[in-house]
Amino acid sequence: MKKLDAQIARDVVDGTHAAWSSGDIERVLSFYTDDLTYWCNAGSIEGTPYVVHGKPAFRTFLHSISAVAESGSVTEYFHFEDGVARTSVECYLLHRRTGLVLSGSFRQVMTFRGRRIARLEDYHDAAKMGAFWRLVSCEETVQMAAEDLN
Length: 150
Hints:
Pfam family, one: SnoaL_2
Protein name: SnoaL-like domain-containing protein
Number of domains: 1
Oligomer: single chain
InterPro entries: NTF2-like_dom_sf (IPR032710), SnoaL-like (IPR037401)
Radius of gyration: 17 Å
Domain SnoaL-like: 17-119
CATH topology: Nuclear Transport Factor 2, Chain: A
Number of helices: 4
């Protein structure tokens, strides 16, 4: 088997985004080790990083997003050195119930073990993401109140 190089790592990274964009969570997971760690700077309401360990927990996390939103992402910048990929990703997220859209870019750092990702770090604009989800919550409340009136 050929040693992991920048092209293979890029193919893996692009594969994760293509699978996510097509809604194929099991395909996304195929690019990760079973004991992966997912870390996100903007994941919790309390403002602390969100951390998930293991493929089953990551699967649950991904399903929680895909259950309420359509999303797409593509790698815009890629650098690979010493088993670590650094990327800039362009993405969008469409909240199905409200129709609200979040779009922009974020950074990822992926640490590889063999040809799979063992650690994924997502760096989002935490204020922007928090504002989006608060707006979604408000809009859903308004929509539910309107439904109750009808």
